Structures are given as structure tokens and as C-alpha cells.
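Bench notes, afternoon.
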Amino acid sequence: MTEHTVKPERYPATHPSSNAASGSTVRGGPADAVRARRRQTGPEVWRPRATVPRSAGPRPAAPVERDQPLVSVVMPCLNERDSVGRCVRAARAGLAAAGVPGEVVVADNGSTDGSRRVAAQAGAWVVREPRRGYGNAYLAGFAAARGHYLVMGDSDCSYDFGELPRLLDPLRGGRADYVLGSRFAGDIRPGAMPWTHRRIGNPVLTRMLNRLFGLRTTDAHSGMRAFTRAAYERMAPRQGGMELASELVVAAAASGLRVREVPITYHPRTGTSKLHSLRDAARHVRFMLGYAARLRAGKPPACTPGNGVDPRP
């Protein structure tokens, strides 16, 4: 795989003193192994310094080194030139509102419309993942991110990054390891979701997941979530397509993570949707049935019935 960043004009594309070049951030967990493999197959990565907001919030849950971001907001991107810059700026504003030092990582999945340059000029650093797929893009972004907390959200303006404090609060307060932003518990704006997805697709798949794994989630396919790095390493996701959304929910329960849901706002997206409804639904179903079969065979960690989602923030 090829991995590098596209920076604003004032920044060089690579820097020999970066942590990625030295390998000093590898600690031995599953995510670190992925990060190490990606470094071995691509050129060095130079990361800009994290921006620390002027008004500091509560003391972070883990010590943060100088210029080390506490939060990494990771966004997948495929030809989102008209929206990715706005999303990056909104995420940076959300980090400032939460009072935390952070970074925005855009995982580009093969854009040909100048999205990488737009994202970099807005203040993100960009990781290239040539293997197509929602999950592949996220895995590349997570492997490169440095934050103690990881936040995921799309780069099409459908999610409100001004709600970052709401997702981060249970993590920073030590009340959760994983926070899922629920569109169905929050506000779905007119035109944001086709009625077939709102009334059939998402509810049916979510009920199927809950029944198979004994969960109580309200929005298994939300694209806005946050979790600690330790939680991510315990989940160790690996699905390369849209089924990553289901995998994270199931793996969180199977790993015994403390999960909370918070209501979020879902907006009409900018640009053309990359979803393929029937194909993506089939991939979710295939993943859930396969994972459930492995659970019954005792291969992955047991998913205890009732180990579901606490809806309290």
C-alpha cells in the first residue's frame, strides 16, 4: 500500500524526524501492528503539530506529550471536493469547542477531483489508501492517527462535527470506552435519509444485529462514533467495506467495552452518495451471519446477551 500526506503549501510532504519514520509509536497492540505494516510498505509520513485551543478544557484522561493530539478525527474521502474542506474546518472548530488538542485525518480512497488538496488546505493531513472501500479508508486513517481518542465521521457534511463535545464527554469522563452517535435517537433532517433506508434498511439490519448478538443499539450503521485507542485495539476491526459499521458494534460488545449512545443530527449530504443499497445490505447480512456462526463455534470472544448499549450520555 502507498501512504503519504498532502500538506498545505507551507509544509513539506515528508519529514525524516517524524514518528512514523522512526517507528517510535509502535507499542505492540493490533492497531499498532497494522500501523507498522503500513509504514513498511509506504514512504515516510510527516505529521503537522497538533493545534491546542486557547481555552483548555478538563484535564485529559491520559497524559499528552507536547504537540501530541488528544483527539484524532478521521474522515474517509472519495471525490468530496465540495464538502471535505467544510468538514475539516467544522471538525477543527468542534475540537476547539471541546477544549482539546487534536488533529483531523482525511483518509483519501482514490479521489480524482482535487479533494486531497482541498482537505490539506483546510488544515487536515491526508493519508492515501488506494484499496477501495469504506472500511479500508477508515483502517488506514485509524492506523495513522495519533490521538488517545479516535472519532469517525463522513466528509460529506451529513454529520455535524459541532457535536464532537457530546461524543467525547462520556469518554473523557471515564463513563464509556465507545460512544455511538444515534441518528434515530436524534434528529434526521428532511431529505437526509431516503425513506427506504429510514423505514426499511437501517431498522431491519439493526434489529437483525440486535437479535443475533443480544444487543440494544438503535442505529447500528451510524457513521459518527468515538472510542478510546485502547478500545480500538481491543476491537481490532478488519472489514474493508461498509460492513465495518456492523463489525464495530459487534466487536465492542464481544470485547466487553462500555458503550453509550448519544443523539446526533443527520443532515442531507453534499454530492453524490457512494452507497449501493442492496449490495451493501447483503455485505452486512453476510458479515453478521458469519460472525454469529463463529461465535457459536467459540472462535472469537463470546458476545454476552444483554451486553448492549447504554443510551445515557
